[in-house]
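Handover notes (outgoing to incoming on-call)

Open items:
1. Biopolymer transporter ExbD: sequence verified, structure written out, both below. Nothing else pending on this one.
2. Nothing else urgent.
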Amino acid sequence: MARRKHSSVEEEAEIDMTPMLDIVFIMLIFFIVTTSFVKPSGLDYNKPEASQATKKPSANIFIGVSKTGIIMMENRQVDIERVTANVERMLAEAPEAAVLIQADQEAKHGLVVKVLDNVKAAGIDKISVSAGNE
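Biopolymer transporter ExbD structure tokens:
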């Protein structure tokens, strides 16, 4: 009776990491492409507190209203008459855009309402006003 000799070289089981690394890189590219970057408005705000404030998805168009009446869009000062034209131009670039208005706590109510009216006149219905709990 002949006995079989086992080979002295043992084969080691190895895990191929290439498919996992491919998936990780694809996920990384997906998250980089789908991330919405926040654009700073260019003004410091003292936001009013709101007990019923809720988080909204990030907007694409930011409008800042300071307590001195300065309106900022895309890090530049804009007259109240030019808000509609600027929003229409931005809406042409991003048709699904939403607007976030960041108004200082001491900003005049009438000016904020005019900005809201001008944004509405540009054809945007998704408008949010920033509050202190965000």
